[in-house]
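2024-03-11 09:14:02 INFO queue: dequeued item ACT domain-containing protein, len=129
2024-03-11 09:14:02 INFO validating residues
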Amino acid sequence: MAGITDLQQLLRSMQPHLAEEEFVFCSVTGSAEDYFSWKPLAIFYEQEGISLVVTKQTAEENYVEFDNTYKQITLTVHSSLDAVGLTAAVSTKLADHGISANVIAAFYHDHIFVQSRHANKALKLLESW
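2024-03-11 09:14:37 INFO prediction written
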């Protein structure tokens, strides 16, 4: 099933969902296989190290340093990876209210990570489209 590409249709039907759990972004060394048992939500290889998105609890249990905690808002509409403007529209709306947006686009949905303290406000803003 192909995802939606029309920006207006995406914005009207995105139905944002706020996850309960808190997440952190961290950087680790070694190989990704060393961290599979942590069940990372995301793994990204960067020149400086391996970036992981893991639960706050996992980070604390493994004595990993992190700067902030984040909540995940999933846009439950099936957006196409070829859709143009969704990330920009969402990021701009949140930025206009002083909320940073860390976006991960997966195959079916876009996932927005916002600082935990702004999560409820961000959700309301995204629901107001």
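2024-03-11 09:14:37 INFO annotate: The two ends are 25 Å apart (CA to CA).
2024-03-11 09:14:38 INFO item closed
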